[in-house]
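Q: Please design a sequence for this.
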């Protein structure tokens, strides 16, 4: 069976999906991941009917890092003899100034993508690791990089510029925006679910361990809360979100911190983890009665309301607001509290629908339609990969 393998590699997990290919049609056959890498590694996968294909735990020393996770996943994938992989599609967070769409990977492309690792140190090295391995063990299988920054590349210079000398912009120091694969999928689904809302002004809130919001007009990105790197905008699990750059200067000059120490602080020791002193996981914070957990949640809600207001201003009004990703899809509490922050724009949430996890969670009288739409980045990657491979013969 001809198939596309999709790989989405993170710092502590490796997600994968297999899509069968018949002509231009893609059908998901396998969905799986290996997570808890280095702590409590577990490989899980399910088939077409959600039947369990594997649910295996490993000792931490067996899967201590991403390369070993790739090895174990590859070993299991080889037991699935029914699939002949036509290509492998990868999520790559940062495409830099050079890549505004999916691209067939060769050694030159891989080298250029590696040069962007400092712009996304939590993601880019992990995104590239399975690509490098696949090039070594399966050099004849085409690989395609799909970028989280690509969806935002139609922004004009006004939206993408920082107030810095023009030379920096020309060198690539500009606002890129991220979570683009997720936003691309949501824009398409919103057009199917609510075409009138999709044709207007909408904000999509991708709320997970990484979090951002995107303003769309007729399904096209206009503004994003993230910029040059994935540090900006909303507070996240371990990242601070919007931060006065003077804080970074203070940490270096007054506190004597090195660039590596500041990077580690901003990417791994900030955000909800720092505010709560407990956890970077919103689920843990919602389950806790510790006042610091409550403060971290309050801070997240406050900044979410402010960022939504900023994007609504950029759009000149708002017709729809969409919640997606782990927190957005699963936490009725967070959805209700953010919706309350939008009441000044005319948002009214239907609490029963929200608790039930309905697709539309706004009241009939709400001036803003509120939706919950599960994202599917892997579907987007598979579609782009098939198109690129077909285009390149």
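A: Design:
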């Amino acid at each position: 069976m001809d198939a596309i393998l999709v790989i989405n590699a993170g710092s502590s997990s490796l997600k994968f999906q297999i899509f069968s290919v018949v002509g231009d049609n893609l059908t998901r056959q396998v969905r799986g991941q290996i997570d808890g890498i280095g702590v409590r590694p577990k490989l899980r996968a399910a088939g077409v009917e959600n039947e369990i294909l594997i649910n295996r735990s490993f000792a931490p020393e067996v899967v201590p890092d991403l390369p070993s996770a790739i090895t174990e996943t590859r070993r299991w994938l080889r037991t699935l003899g029914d699939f002949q992989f036509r290509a492998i599609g990868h999520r790559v967070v940062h495409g830099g100034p050079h890549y505004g769409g999916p691209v067939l990977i060769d050694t030159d492309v891989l080298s250029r993508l590696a040069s962007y690792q400092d712009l996304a140190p939590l993601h880019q090295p992990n995104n590239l690791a399975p690509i490098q391995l696949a090039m070594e063990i399966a050099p004849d299988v085409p690989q395609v990089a799909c970028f989280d920054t690509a969806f935002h590349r139609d922004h004009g210079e006004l939206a993408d510029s920082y107030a810095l000398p023009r030379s920096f912009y020309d060198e690539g120091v500009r606002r890129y925006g991220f979570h683009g694969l997720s936003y691309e999928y949501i824009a398409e689904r919103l057009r199917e679910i609510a075409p009138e809302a999709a044709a207007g002004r909408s904000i999509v809130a991708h709320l997970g361990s990484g979090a951002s919001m995107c303003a769309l007009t007729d399904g096209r990105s206009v503004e994003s809360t993230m910029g040059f790197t994935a540090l900006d905008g909303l507070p996240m699990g371990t990242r601070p979100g919007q931060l006065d750059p003077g804080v970074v200067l203070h940490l270096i000059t007054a506190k004597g911190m090195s660039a590596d120490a500041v990077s580690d602080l901003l990417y791994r020791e900030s955000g909800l983890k720092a505010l709560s002193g407990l956890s970077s996981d919103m689920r843990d914070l919602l389950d806790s009665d510790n006042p610091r957990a409550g403060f971290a949640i309050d801070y997240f809600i406050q900044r979410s309301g402010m960022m939504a207001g900023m994007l609504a201003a950029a759009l000149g009004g708002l017709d729809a607001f969409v919640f997606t990703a782990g927190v957005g899809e699963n936490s009725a509490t967070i959805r209700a509290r953010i919706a309350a922050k939008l009441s000044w724009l005319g948002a009214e949430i239907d609490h029963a629908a929200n608790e039930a996890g309905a697709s539309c969670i706004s009241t009939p009288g709400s001036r803003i339609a509120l939706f919950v739409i599960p994202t599917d980045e892997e579907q987007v990657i598979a579609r782009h990969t098939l198109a690129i491979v077909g285009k390149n013969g």
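Q: Thanks. Anything notable?
A: The chain is about 40% helix and 20% strand. The first strand starts at residue 2 and ends at 9.
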